[in-house]
Specification:
The complex is a heterodimer of chains A (114) and B (239). Chain A has one domain. Chain A contains one helix and six strands. Chain A is α+β, with helices and mostly antiparallel strands and 114 residues long. Chain B is of the alpha+beta class and 239 residues long. Chain B has two domains: 67 residues, no CATH class; 127 residues, no CATH class. In chain B, helix 3 crosses helix 5. Classes of the chains: A alpha+beta (114), B alpha+beta (239). At the A-B interface, helix 1, strand 3, strand 4 and strand 6 of A face helix 1 and strand 2 of B.
Chain lengths: 114, 239
Amino acid sequence: MSPAFVYEFAFPMLRSPVASVELNALMMASAQGLVAAQEALNQAARDSLESARDTCVPPSAFMLRHCRMRFPAAYQWTSRIRSEQASRVVLRPRFTSRTTITISYLYLPKLQDK
Amino acid sequence: MTELTILELGESVVQALTGVQQTLARSADDAGRYLMDEVELDVPVRLRIGPDGQVLVSPAEGDEPAHQLTRIRLKLRPAEQDESVGLPLPTGTDRPLTVLSELVPIVIQRLNDLRIFTVGDFLRTTSTVRGYALLSKLDMDFDLDKTIDQAKLVASPEMPYVLAEDLLQHNVNSRVEFAKLSPAQLKASVSDRLLEIMGMDEITRIQAVIRQQPDVIYAGVGNRPSKPERGDQPGKTNS
């Protein structure tokens, strides 16, 4: 069984080059970041498996079993004016804020013995 | 000051979550899959009850004393998801007010100003004494009770909204009127285009279901469903 990492990131502040970002966009970006990180770990595991035959170093594989991000942010929202639109929460990064957002993800590997 | 109803705030967060779930579902591969475990938002807001009884929230500006603010804590843990995850299919309650033939654009604009955008918003607001009283005082030329009947028809859980909207276009304005239609009247009250989609048998079956609903029976039109046979009660199995 591969070792399982629990990653918890607590950001005292949220820095961003943009003045504001929609909650949808921020959450999508965090999910895509998790996927990219795990894919890189999977690729490293494959490389490790292939090189083990030559180097005799036991192969290793890691996974982001549980990833949690916690950060403060200021918020605003855009209000719809017609039924076809949707109201959206918008986050504004700044140094202090009483609003806190926590997002956590799980990675469920397909183990060969299952 | 941007104000939303508390329902809109919840909906916008759920929409964000759904987008993430879809992204994660698409990212599954041979090695494994990803799940959203939990999202927590702690939002300080100013909260007030609107003139129509809706709960309205506006963002805290940062300079208010803490005791004047309400904290909304949204802690969401999505159920186990798979590749088919997505927003639920739209229902009649999600339909815009424009489908209600009684409402002219200027009335719809007035309702939008009160943050009433959909058939569901309209029914939710008019179901309260305060909301009904406010809308009945609107100095606009529309029949509130008739519009509520139209909205209830569109929002009927027993029928697809395409059927309800087709009936409205044929001047069938309520569930009771739909239940009253004879077979010949029913056939004349739906368009050929709808018949291509649904078929008359399906529409007749829906009418029979509507006739068994309490609101229609109360109006003296429907029939109470026959009692199930002994030993064939819902929730019990014959073994």
